[in-house]
Amino acid sequence: MSCSYRRKGARAVIIIVLIFSLAIVLPASRIFTAHSPSVVSSKSDTSSPLHNSNYHSVPVSCPQHKTVVRTRFPDVLIIGVRKGGTRALINFLSAHPKVLKAGAEAHFFDKEDNLRRGINYYLSLLPPVPDGSILVEKTPAYFVTPTAPRTIHLFHPAVKLILIVRDPVDRIMSSYAQLHEKNTQMGKSYQDLPDVLYSADGSVNLSNSMVQGSMYSKHLRNWLKVFPREQIYIVDGDSFVKDPYSVLKGVETFLQLESFFTEDSFPYNETKGFYCVKVDGEVECLGSGKGREHPKVQERVINDLREVFAPYNREFEKLTGQIFGWSS
Prior knowledge:
Helices cover 36% and strands 13% of the residues. It is an alpha/beta fold.
């Protein structure tokens, strides 16, 4: 957005109930700091199609725009999963004229140091949003952060949440491929996948972060303690890769957006081997870092992982009420 803006100092209206609730997650002094004036609550912001009474909103002066532009808490958070297709999802979704995406991942609700910097720090990472549009921020680390659901709920209990998942074993392969590539580029050696995943006794290391990240039901249970199921939209990442049009139409409905996407919105790139998206008539594809070749591993490793994830997959289906091709 070309409009320049100045953040206005905001008076903190600290609600006693909010302070006590925040103490459960993090001492209030760590979130509402002297380093950035805190915007704890504001009058109801009806500028968004998803408006509610718990917005953190700062109007912005922008004479060249006829509509009001403001910096506010996101309407939608894409909370995960890592290596599940979050980047493609937010890029494709933001092709909708009423959707604005935040830039880089904010990592506000998963990093205590960022929480200490205060809510105005978070707002400073977000672009101003015109009236009638919705803002989407994505940080996949939120999904696996135990304190994130309660903290997010305190700031914005009506925020819409989107979770995109994929075959949990494939997700591990993708995560490892990324780590291996980064280490290789830096001239560092990296362990083979079995050495990373297995404990000394020969069993899969259940505390490994890559393994933990694929235990979807474990983390979803944590979110459902705070948010109702209907507030969390679950996207099948494998279906998204094959048919982005159908998936995005479902997201449009969930977010109560006017119908915009057509099948022509997502041309298939034969060279890259996956779908792209049209943005203002121009075709945009994901970068070269997407679609890395997965490591070749022994069938034993695949079978061990599938055995580990089987009970989590079954529980995930029960929690979501959805059937996934990889869950059996």
